[in-house]
Design a protein that fits this description.
With 336 residues, the protein is of the alpha/beta class. It contains twelve helices and ten strands.
């Protein structure tokens, strides 16, 4: 069962009503801005539990929620700078595809810096969308430095994968849709990597109803966000974690996520799941729910099945963030 935020854990700057209204207005504007370019994914019920609601972002364009933030950010960049020479980003794969699609749509070049050992399926899809991919000599640890070098050399604009308000407001549209479809939802559960989806979800949910609980899920081996929430200080992993959930490999949450989750107190809990529990969530998603999830997208389902999420008598919404899985890996995991 998920526990609430610990007493004394956060610096404690309450999010005021005006602050939440401002973010809600930005989320509403983002929904209108990106509506022509994304899919409004459905909210599904499941025979796993009558109280469970699934938001399958694996149905989204490019196979993940990331297009929401990417389109919101790039459309605004293009509006602010009509002569935009191009955009650049670092990514494990899903943000890369989203940036590539959004950049192609608005007619600007995209450069993606991706570690050499990233999911080859995601890398191939990024190139197929017309982006330039830089991988040679790139590791998870040095990719941000390589990105800065190329950005400066070419005069490109950075589209950060999570630490950017335009990205966060775009990602927030998933939870906003969910609550529009099912206002009675009392708990929303999302995966946590850098925290863009978590931050956006918290802003969207708390703007509608401060009583809605927002819970993040990350792998046990990548528990920096959990420790950050508990201690009230940003915690960094020593290195990129070895986990099936490649979207949860950032070594620390972003500054804006820290503001939303810790300083503003808008995230209620962050729970962790083992690699074995991730596999169980993935299997349930594929075999019981018939959803082609990737491991990161299965994190909320894994936490629910492991008993770490309690709906407290109200429906629980799980944002299943993506479905860009390595099919060979999934086949082995499903049949082992």
């Amino acid at each position: 069962m998920a526990e609430g935020r610990p007493a004394g854990g956060a610096p404690g700057v309450e999010a005021g009503a005006d602050d939440l209204r401002r973010h809600a207005a930005e989320i509403e504007a983002a929904r209108a801005r990106i509506r022509p370019y994304i899919r409004r994914t459905p909210l599904l019920t499941t025979d796993l539990d009558d109280a469970l609601r699934l938001k399958p972002e694996c149905f989204q364009r490019t196979g993940s929620f990331k297009v929401r933030g990417a389109f919101n950010a790039i459309l605004q960049l293009r509006q602010r700078r009509p002569d935009l020479p191009g955009v650049i980003a670092v990514s494990s794969g899903n943000h890369a595809q989203a940036v590539a699609l959004a950049a192609r749509t608005v007619g600007v070049p995209a450069v993606l810096v991706i570690s050499f050992d990233a999911n080859p399926t995601k890398v191939a899809a990024t190139r197929a969308l017309g982006a330039e991919v830089i991988q040679e000599g790139v590791t998870f640890e040095n990719r941000e430095e390589r990105c800065r070098q190329v950005m400066i050399e070419r005069g490109l604009e950075l589209v950060h994968p999570f630490d950017d308000w335009d990205i966060i407001h775009g990602q927030a549209t998933a939870a906003d849709e969910m609550l529009e479809d099912e206002p009675s939802i009392g708990t929303i559960v999302v995966p946590v990597g850098g925290g863009g989806l978590l931050s956006g979800t918290a802003l969207a949910a708390k703007a509608r109803d401060r009583g809605i609980r927002v819970i993040g899920v990350e792998p046990e081996v990548a528990d920096d966000a959990r420790r950050t929430l508990e201690t009230g200080r940003v915690q960094r992993l020593e290195r990129a974690p070895d986990t099936l959930a490649d979207g949860a490999r950032p070594v620390a949450v972003g500054r804006r996520t820290f503001e939303v989750a810790v300083q503003r107190g808008l995230v209620d809990a962050i729970v962790t799941v083992s690699e074995e529990e991730i596999v169980a969530g993935l299997r349930t998603g594929w075999l019981r729910c018939k959803l082609a999830l990737e491991p990161t997208g299965a994190l909320p389902l894994a936490a629910y099945l492991a008993g770490r999420v309690d709906g407290r008598g109200r429906p629980v919404g799980l944002v299943l963030s993506g479905g860009n899985a390595d099919l060979g890996l999934v086949a082995r995991l499903l049949h082992d």
